[in-house]
Amino acid sequence: MDFGLKGKKALVMSSSRGLGAGIAHALAAEGCDVLLTGRSEDRLREVADAINTKGAGRADYVCADLADPACVDALASAVADKLGGADILIANTGGPPPGKMSEVDLSKLTAHFEAMVLRVAQVTDRLLPHMRAQGWGRIVAIGSSGVVQPIPNLGLSNLVRSALVGWAKSMSNDLAPDGITVNMLLPGRIHTERVDELDAAAAKRTGTTPEAARAASIATIPAGRYGDVEEFAAVAAFLCSVPAAYVTGSLVRCDGGLIRSI
């Protein structure tokens, strides 16, 4: 299938590693030019170099910390300077530390909400004029299976990412007449550094080993394994595609059957 993405321009937030980097690779393979963002210039340069070596879509990067309100102007300026506008936004953010909801330090709630929800809304607002002017755009917000089936010991993530669900669904209704789709893509246990960190935290909490914690996690997944980043990124690329024009306002799961609800 031709995704129709050759020559499109994409801003991929938090793409110096993990799911964001995987999506940037997938979009570039379809001919997109991608702008990477993150806090580590070394990591961003490494991802950009790997994409550019393949010779399909091109990659550039800008250092930005979503915890800093100034990043909104920085990202908007970089999109204008390096891409000339973004046709696609991958709204990806880092995740908060693990912990039970009843034990969360609520003094930190505002900071996580701003970095994970408010920044997404603010960046989207800056990119919309370009999308509206051309009558075409794709916004994919990366969430978590926890917005459907809350994940034990990830209370803060369950809470904050659920706010993004309401934002994405509301935006999808507002933007559909403009030819802009908005969807949320929900990963289950996709094997990234973040998942390794969560397995290590689970092992420490339960007095076992990371390997045992991972085995216990895999036992809850009908597919019997963690997903690959490339599998997840392929779903994201489809949601950004021209053929996906009638898919909007959806929560799309890529979880190997982890979520038990219909």
UniProtKB/TrEMBL annotation:
InterPro entries recorded: NAD(P)-bd_dom_sf (IPR036291), SDR (IPR050259), SDR_fam (IPR002347)
CDD domains documented for this protein: BKR_like_SDR_like (cd05344)
Entry-linked Gene3D superfamilies: NAD(P)-binding Rossmann-like Domain (3.40.50.720)
The family this protein is said to belong to: Belongs to the short-chain dehydrogenases/reductases (SDR) family.
Protein name, as recorded: SDR family oxidoreductase
